[in-house]
Amino acid sequence: MEIKYKIWIEHEGKQVFGDGIYRLLQLVEKYGSINQAAAAQKMSYRQAWGKIKKIEKRLGVKLLERHRGGENGGGAVLTETGKAMMSRYGELVDKIESLLASQISWK
């Protein structure tokens, strides 16, 4: 048996950060592209970009800087705020997993 859980952060009663946006931003950071991140998550570019815009609006901050395509192609990079949100969320999840592992045994 194993314990399952979900963690998310809310602001004014609305979800602003959780596993889905965390994974999506990790992939944008890895690939430098919303399109490639979306493909890796098996979602459309439009759906991925819509999720990012919705969270940015709820937070009132930019998580990504986009560069439109051209001769050298487009891309996206995390803002400092985006990096900080990912770092803090990742640390929170790591602490919770560590706590659960140290406190609970189902053997």
From TrEMBL:
InterPro entries: LysR_HTH_N (IPR000847), Molybdate_resp_trans_reg (IPR051815), WH-like_DNA-bd_sf (IPR036388), WH_DNA-bd_sf (IPR036390). It comes from the Bacteria. Residues 23-82 form the HTH lysR-type domain. GO terms for molecular function: DNA-binding transcription factor activity. It holds the Pfam family HTH_1. This is Transcriptional regulator, ModE family. It comes from Thermosediminibacter oceani (strain ATCC BAA-1034 / DSM 16646 / JW/IW-1228P).
